[in-house]
Design a protein that fits this description.
The protein contains 4 helices and 4 strands. The protein is an alpha+beta fold. It has a 4-stranded mixed sheet, with helices on both faces. α2 crosses α4 and α3 packs parallel to α4. The longest helix is centred in the middle third of the chain and has 18 residues. It is globular.
Length: 137
C-alpha cells in the first residue's frame, strides 16, 4: 500500500498547529501577554521561529467553573476552533512576514452560550490586534 502524502489544507487545523505541550502552555500562562475582546481573552507568547513546530499554535479553553456540563464546554470549544480555523490566515501571514512564532491561548470568559458569529468576530479582532502589535521575540 502507498502512504498518502500530506497535503497542506489551507483551512485545516492539524496536530502540529495545536498547542498541547505542557511546557509551552505553562510558558504562555507564566510570561505571555494578553488581549481581551468580549467574550474571549487571548494570552499569547511570541518567540523566534523553530523549524520543528508550526508558526502558530493555538489552544482553546472553556472554564468548568462557568459551564458545569461538558456538552456546553465542548460546543463552545468547537465554535472557537471553527472560528480560528476559518480565519487563521491573518495570524499565519503576520508570523511569516514578521519571522516569528506565536503560541496563543483563547479563553472563553462569558457566562452564557453565545452565537458563533459573536465568537468569530471576537477571534478575528484579537488576531488583527495581535498582527498590528509590534511584538519582538
Amino acid at each position: 500500500m502507498h502512504k498518502k502524502q500530506a497535503v497542506k489544507k489551507p483551512y485545516g487545523f492539524p496536530k502540529s498547529e495545536r498547542l498541547c505541550s505542557k511546557k509551552s502552555i505553562e510558558q504562555v500562562f507564566a510570561s505571555g501577554q494578553s488581549i481581551f475582546t468580549y467574550p474571549i481573552k487571548a494570552l499569547f507568547y511570541v518567540s523566534k521561529p523553530s523549524p520543528s513546530t508550526a508558526c502558530c499554535q493555538a489552544l482553546f479553553v472553556v472554564p468548568k467553573r462557568k459551564f458545569k456540563r461538558a456538552v456546553s464546554r465542548n460546543a463552545i470549544r468547537r465554535k472557537m476552533r471553527e472560528a480560528y480555523r476559518l480565519n487563521k490566515q491573518i495570524l499565519t501571514q503576520w508570523c511569516l512576514e514578521s519571522n516569528v512564532e506565536v503560541k496563543i491561548v483563547f479563553l472563553y470568559v462569558a457566562s452564557d452560550l453565545l452565537e458563533f458569529v459573536q465568537i468569530q468576530e471576537s477571534i478575528i479582532k484579537i488576531m488583527q490586534q495581535l498582527a498590528q502589535k509590534d511584538v519582538k521575540p
